[in-house]
Amino acid sequence: HKLLADVWFDRAAISKYRGNYDLAIAAITTAGEQYLLIHDTVNQVECLCETGALYQQKNDPVKALVYYHQAEKILLASRKMKNLSKLYNGLGTFYLSQKEYEKSLDYYRKSLDINHQIDFPLGASVNLLNIGNVCIAQKDYACAIDNLMQSLKIKQGINDLQGIQKCYTNLGLVYANSNQPEKAIEFHNKTLE
Question: What are the residue ranges in the chain where pLDDT is below 50?
Fold first, then answer.
């Protein structure tokens, strides 16, 4: 069953890459059913999240949320906290794309809390970066700077070079948008180092 499930999962990825979301949903649903038969909750949840993402790409946020919340129930019951944190971060991104900023912040903060509890600094730094992005969307530049600087500090501590560049880029944008061109140039130049 595991091999069969993996084949269906790969078929879904290929269909998604080709833009055939309906075929991808059918394949990922079959993969999820196979994972359920062998009690592989991690991959079953991955299938539910991928199905949600596919519905999101099809511009059907209602169906997307159904699958995300099914995944949440399984993760809460199984106490797979790192996976739950990842799901909550994804839900934060989902609500950011829908311009529902308060819901987005709620989910990013839930994810951040879990990442602090399980001592996962990379996840926490991603959450802080994403919270900064919500603040940017709301034009709350002080909030954005605070969260981006917290993310940057963590990313520097764990030597996440790609993450450091993302922080510098976003900080440059914040300073440019808040009419501080010297600071904007300073952070944009840091991305080139």
Answer: none
